[in-house]
Structure formats: structure tokens, C-alpha cells
Amino acid sequence: MRSLLVVALTAAVLAPSAAEAQRTRDRISFGRDYGNRFSLEPYGGAMKDAYDIGADGDTGYLVGFRIGYTLASRTRLIGNFGFSNTENVSDPGALADYYVYDNVWVMTTGGGEFDVVPGRTSAALGLQFGVGWRKLDLEGTVGSPILPAQPDDEFTAYEMLLPSLNVKHRLSDRATIMAGIQDHMFNFLEGTTQHSPALTLGFSFR
Question: Which of 53, 54, 69, 80 holds its CA 20 to 30 A away from the CA of 46?
Fold first, then answer.
């Protein structure tokens, strides 16, 4: 009887502590300790441009930022703005006189992200939909081209999918470092899908 009383008293003492610990974990998981569920995530990296047909490589820089909103401990909504520039994307062929163009990309997408591996160091799969706008930016000339240059003030829109894999490590309650792999899938609804993979590094701040 005395043993049962001791067990009951121990349970009565420990149960509130365990419940409070669980509530604390839940608050941290859901971001309630951060004051809100929003995060700002600037990033930078390199993108392989599928629309670069130049002879000196097809990789340009990629910068942007994401805005996240935590729905649950492992699920987030994501809004993304990206900018990319790739130099010397034209192919003059046998021409001795030609124009040199850059590809300029502006990309806006939105979607979601799910932690397939949760924890302080986590891995998240994401999928976003949106539009990529591309224009040719006149960089210079070689020789004296006879024909006029192509307009460099008009953007062409491409529908796009953006699947991603991000590995994150939480540095503090408010800061996280992340590395990601993305595939910018342009023109996936019309014609042939053009894949432009990218590698990025960034931070997440609450």
C-alpha cells in the first residue's frame, strides 16, 4: 500500500513537469516563442541556365529571398523572389561581327515545404509554382554588326515549377543556416520542359 502511495505521489509531481516540457517543445516547434510564425530567408548561389547557348559556359549567379510562414511543426508555406544573370548567352556561329547578350531572369514562386527529417539539423522537400520572366540584356558588340540589336527591354514569361531540397541547421532560436538544391523547370506546360538546376546557401531569420 505504501509503495502504491509513493508511486502515485511521484506521478502527481512529475506529470505536470512532463506536460510543461511537452508544451515548451510544441511552442518551439510551432515558432510561438519567436513572437510570430514568419521567417525571412535571403540566399545566393549559382544556376545553370538552360537558355544559354553561348560557347563559354552556361552558369550564372542566383540571388533572392524567401518568406516563410509556419503552419505546423514540419510544414511551411513559402513565397520566393529570385534574380539570376548569365553572361554571353548567344551563339554567333560563324559571324565575325555580332552582339553579346546576357540572360536576365526575374522569378516569383509560391508553394510549400515539409521537413522529411525534423530536428535541429533537418532536411526539407519543397515544391513551388510560379512564373519566370526572361529578357536579353545587351552587354556589348564584337566588330560592327550590320543588323540592329534585339530589344533588351522586353520580358518573356515562362510558367515554372520549382522543386527543392534544403538542409538546415538551427544556430539559435532566431537564426538558421541552410544549403539547397533547386530545379527551375521552365515551360513545363507548353513544349519541352527546360531544366535549370541551382545550388544555394542562405540564412533564415525570425
Answer: 69
- Taking the model in full, what pTM does it have? 0.77
Q: Which residues contact 164 (CB under 8 A, 6 or more apart)?
A: 113, 125, 126, 127, 128, 180, 181, 182, 183
The number of distinct structural domains making up the chain is 2
- How far is it, in rounded angstroms, from Cα 24 to Cα 18? 10
DSSP structure class, residue 148: P
Residue 158, number of CB atoms within 10 A of its CB:
22
> Both 41 and 20 in a single domain?
no
| 26 & 122 share domain | no
Q: Which residue, chain included where needed, has cell 515544391? A: 127
Tell me how far apart the alpha carbons of residues 74 and 30 are, in angstroms, rounded to a whole number.
8
The position carrying cell 518551439 is: 28
